[in-house]
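### Sample
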Amino acid sequence: MEHAIELFVSRVDHNRFRTDIEPRQAVEFVLLSLEALITKQMSSLNEQELDEGGTVPALDTSLYIHMLKYGVYRGAGK
């Protein structure tokens, strides 16, 4: 995961990050949060739902992304 974090950090516009947040830690937090959301979704599905369709239903992450984004970015609220 370290390489993924470094790659992601290098491609993110750091100019919009809050000045009191280290960019690498912010990106790591976002990635860990997304991983937790996926884990939450997977644990809420039962095996039958996974076996019947063969695919995992999409998780609506828009609210979570909104919370992450405006918790990390400086002065970018609605």
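The chain has one domain: 2-72. This sample (TetR family transcriptional regulator) is used throughout the tutorial notebook.
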